[in-house]
Amino acid sequence: MTLCIAAACLDHKKRDRVVIGTDWMATGEIAAGADIQDKLYWVNDDIAVLVSGVVTRAVELRDAYRFELESMKAKKEKLTHRNIRRFIKAGPRLLKKDIADEAVTFATGLSYTEFRKAVKDGQIPPAVATGMFRAVEQKDLECEVIIVAFVEKDPYIFQVERSGHVEERDNFALIGEGTYVAEAMLYYRKHESTDPLSIALYHVWEALYISSRRVGTVSRTHSIDILIPPKENGAHVDVHELTEAGFEFMKKQFSDKFGIRRIKRFPDLPDNCVEASE
Fold first, then answer.
1. Distances from the Cα of 214 to the Cαs of 70, 124, 146, 191, 204, in angstroms?
2. Considering only CA atoms, which of 135, 71, 143 is closest in space to residue 102?
3. How many H helices and E strands in the chain?
4. Does 278 reside within a domain?
5. Which one of 115, 170, 213, 252 is most buried, counting C-beta atoms within 10 A?
């Protein structure tokens, strides 16, 4: 129950930036829709993860990426422009294996590997095996995430769906229940990765603002941050946040200049606007 946005843009010196925005809605038996949950996590100092859905699953997906990084490190392999997409696809694959193992173990007491061997050896009836395999196949990740990864100074934005499908996004990515409203606003504004940082901040703020007032599960409490590539202000990604004054400035621009207006009085239609159909 949330909304997360990542939008690529350029600063005044034409350097790459990524603006990320999240609401703070948390749901569940304890949270009861409270505005208490940050949706920004980190795989490492240069890879940010925005999460929606079951948070524990999203954290497991983050940890799957950490495991993959450790495997690469053991092989003395670094993230590059050539292997970044393979790395991103590895996370959902690892988590799906864990979910399959969890489902089979809960139902049979066997690991997924042990279960498959038992099926192969004829120790489990085909009807039971078919049902179990079908149940595993229907399991999804129970979460969706946006991953913002920096390779050297170049940002990549990926969207990982609940199915495990990975899509690379050039301009912006969105996840969560408020997506249908926020996405419409970003397309309406024709947001592109070449837009100035100030405009991108407004686009993300406006998408969050409108969504929070039209979608009941999107909180009116937001965070908006700017991700600055590594080796500009330090060895790793630097994060600047939009302050309370920044939020007030964006709201004033919306109210005074750029926001969609409620129709209070519409002029009468001229006679030639409508005619009887034949």
1. 42, 51, 22, 21, 16
2. 135
3. 7, 10
4. no
5. 115
What gap in Å lies between CA 268 and CA 95, rounded to an integer? 59
**String of DSSP letters for 100-145:** HHHHHHHHHSS-HHHHHHHHHTT-S-HHHHHHHHHHHHH---SEEE
Whole-model pTM: value is 0.87
Residues in Cβ contact with 239 at an 8 Å cutoff, skipping those fewer than 6 apart: 225, 226, 227, 228
Please name every residue paired with 150 in a beta bridge, in sequence order, or none if there are none. 155
Q: How many Cβ atoms from other residues are within 10 Å of residue 168's Cβ?
A: 13
The H-assigned helical ranges of 161-215 are 179-188, 197-212
Dist. CA 152–CA 171, nearest whole Å: 19
Q: Are 104 and 118 in contact (CB under 8 A)?
A: no
Half-sphere exposure of 6 (CA within 13 A, CB side): 28
Note whether 160 and 175 are within 8 A (CB): no
> How far is the CA of 52 from the CAs of 37, 132, 140, 200, 217, in angstroms?
11, 28, 14, 22, 12
Q: What is the pLDDT of residues 167-212, one digit of tens each?
A: 999 999 999 988 999 999 999 999 999 999 999 999 999 999 999 9
Sign of CA dihedral 7, 8, 9, 11: positive
- Domain with residue 23: its CATH number is 3.60.20.10
Is there a domain that residue 164 lies in?
A: yes
Q: What domain range is 116 assigned to?
A: 3-273
Give residue for tokens 């997360």: 4
Domain count across the chain: 1
